[in-house]
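Running this now, will post back.
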Amino acid sequence: MFLFPARCFFLLLLFNFTNTGRVLWKIKERLRDIQLQETEKHLLTGTVTGRHLLQHAQEGKIHQQLDHFNRQDGNTFPQRFFVNEAYWQRPDGPVFLYIGGEGPISVFDVVAGHHVDIAEKHGALLLALEHRFYGNSINPDGLKTENLVYLSSQQALVDLAMFHQYISQRFSLSHKNTWISFGGSYAGALSAWYRGKFPHLVYGAVASSAPVRAELDFSAYNSIVGSSLMNEEVGGSVKCLAEVREAFAALEAAVMSANISQVAADFGCCQIPDNDEDKIELIQNLADIFMGTVQYNEEGVLISIEELCDVMTNQGVNMTAYNRLVKLAQFYFSSSKDPCLDVSHKKTVKHLMNTSISSGRMSERQWIYQTCTEFGFYQTCEDAACPFSGMLTLQADTELCPVLFGISQHSLPRRIAFTNSYYGEDNPHTHRVLYVNGGVDPWKALSVMEDRTECGDESQLIFIKDTAHCADMMHKRNTDRSSLRNARKEIERHVASWLKTAAQEKMEKRTF
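Update: finished.
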């Protein structure tokens, strides 16, 4: 195994969660592109320090065992990682591990972000490890259904432990080097679980927007989307939510009418959605615009809640709620490279059944497999609190499990129950895990939100009332809300406290 200078820029994928709609995935890809552009500009046209950081970043590869739980199986897969020694105070400086989630990692994961800012202050060695079966960390046949059995959070946690061993040997680390893990979204849950399952390897963990509780019917997601759309602190209003509800009620009525051709024309569809599956695909993709806007509010992903609500409450002449939805969709899709909105469910299934890894960015198939086998997380709309359409059902979401992987829908509750039993749901009893959540973020519903620390212990929760998904992990911007700036300071204080305590513990051990 060896390290070599990172020569390419890879797209950031800090946070992703799936839905059957294609638009939400495109929003996530757009967010990655924006982050890439901002980070590259910040590093290359900013200070000398930025260019210095990039020069010190190195990419490497470790061959991990494919099945850690079967010692008779000698098969392996290549796992990509990045290292940055620019700030490291050898030999005893701390180690900051950025955990990859359901997508590719990037060289920028060890040169930019809040964890990098903290590393500079404490002289930390920076590491980033890509999740198995995502990005470049996959065998050529890895997407075949029979091989996806090796894709799980449990296997990923052992990958982290084996990576710890490899890096410790590679850099001659010892007990003097304190490890802190960082992760956001699914990777945030991994950060918390890593600390819980391997407390002897990682001293503390920051878990941003971490859904540590698996849930089959995640109806709370769209309920929180609705409440965020009427949150005046972020530009929402009661009227905005009412208009969204009215727009989707009109949309549902329109797609079920005989005038479906007009609906297809209104939203620039590539084909007429003349069956129920295609109609659901259309509604889901339009709902995705709202879901993506709320989840990534004010993170530069095209439109904010305030801007969206301005469109939806515009009182122009002859502007019905349906017309405003059409206008919003046209505004969104005008920036898309796609000539039309593909609402063919058959094409979606065909895309997800593609087992070629040459597509590079493809992550949907792997993540949907994990939702079928471990997490659920299906963002349904059968609850009355959902602002969209009741056609977005759990049945429709889970039908991909048997179609793509031969996994019975009836087995999903049992699989999810195992995950919660294994990790402890949102009451994991972990020590020195900092859970960070935003008030606008729909994923907060599955994170740790209740302070269960013992009397005298430091609180392990940070709640940022007016920010969205993983906003604390981004590099600092002048437009950041004061609540976000204060939260980052609080995260820094926790990490500094952990490192100080770890140093004290090591001094005490030396005296005995």
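The first helix runs from residue 22 to 44. More later if anyone needs it.
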